[in-house]
Amino acid sequence: MSTNNIVILGAGVSGLTTAYLLSKDASNSITVLAKHMPGDYDIEYASPWAGANYLPVGKASSSHGKWERNTWPALKEITEKYPDAGIHFQDAVVYNRTKDQGSATGDWFSELVQKEPWYKDVVPDFRNFPDHELAPGIDNASVFTSVCINTAIYLPWLIGQCRKTGVVFKRAVIKHVADAASLHHSGKKADVVVNCTGLSSRKLGGVNDDKLHPIRGQVVVVRNDPGAMFSISGTDDADDEITYMMTRAAGGGTVIGGSYQKDQWDPLPDPNLAVRIMKRAVALVPQLVGKGQGIEGLDVIRHGVGLRPFREGGPRIEADKVNGVSVVHNYGHGGFGYQASFGCAAEAVELVNGVLRQKGRAKL
User: Fold this and answer.
1) What are the phi and psi torsion angles at 175 (to 5°)?
2) E strand spans, the chain
3) Locate the FAD dependent oxidoreductase domain: which residues (predicted)?
4) Tens digit of pLDDT for each residue in 7-41?
5) Best CA proximity match to 180, nearest among 336, 20, 35, 2
6) Is 197 flagged in the annotation as binding?
7) Is 177 within any annotated ligand binding site?
8) Measured between alpha carbons, how far is residue 262 from residues 135, 142, 334 in Å?
9) Least C-beta-crowded within 10 Å: which of 55, 91, 131, 358?
10) Residue 59: is its pLDDT beyond 80?
11) What is the pLDDT of residue 4?
């Protein structure tokens, strides 16, 4: 059996999920190269900062919707079979205010907050709240079973699964995507390079994708447990601010957000925004704190900022040739990297296999 030498650039959720799926084929010899690895907390490494959960936001007829649809079964299976992966089921409550449509966050959540969304046939236990249960200002609301991922456990779990099958992980800073082909751990040139560098693809030589933009997300992580996930379509504070909260599995704390600030690179938490985030969370879900308490009832673990790798026109998942090197791209997932991770990675794997088949025919 011939060996396929593959180099994957990036160790965020997209890179690790792609490596995980490719590692299931024993003929693949995989090296993952990354500047940042799980355990790092850096502004340009988005995956550790994510909530992360399953709240579909793609249109049903789009590739985005298909990727999210195809990811749910994998997340469900991991949650059920692998408690060590750091994922648990959790009710998700979604509130909609029609007046938020047209804002940055309202547009982002427009599919999520539909009264009859396409994903109601994908997730378990979907139901709409009856009108008499809706608070003033809420036009519709729903609840369904979702998952919440403790990224500090899940990303290392993916690495562990890959290492069982011989995947090699190495720190590296790559200036040009074609250079990665010469860095396979075997010493041989890679047959294909998979580019999962997220926002770094803006400046990565041979890619230089100017369609990529940062969308700054600020969060507060607290020890308080609201008992479920909650989100709402917008806020009265700013068009690019939002309210959501989710409790990560296995003691990961509750992530409260947030913001959706396009082309904003500031790595430092804004203390005024942090106060607004906390006030909105307590107003939306009073049980987050003790009765009669305000934000002083929140037990803060840390404040954080991450940059979502948003790409105009959607993620880039396609085969490419750069300086004679076969490259498959899988980057630009904005704020839905986890909930589309398996759908996107499976598509990237198909493209990798297509490249390898062509190379096999060329060798014959």
Assistant:
1) -90, -30
2) 4-9, 28-34, 87-96, 127-128, 140-149, 168-171, 192-195, 212-222, 229-232, 241-247, 254-259, 261-262, 300-311, 316-322, 325-331
3) 6-351
4) 999 999 999 999 999 999 999 999 999 999 999 99
5) 35
6) yes
7) yes
8) 31, 28, 10
9) 131
10) yes
11) 98
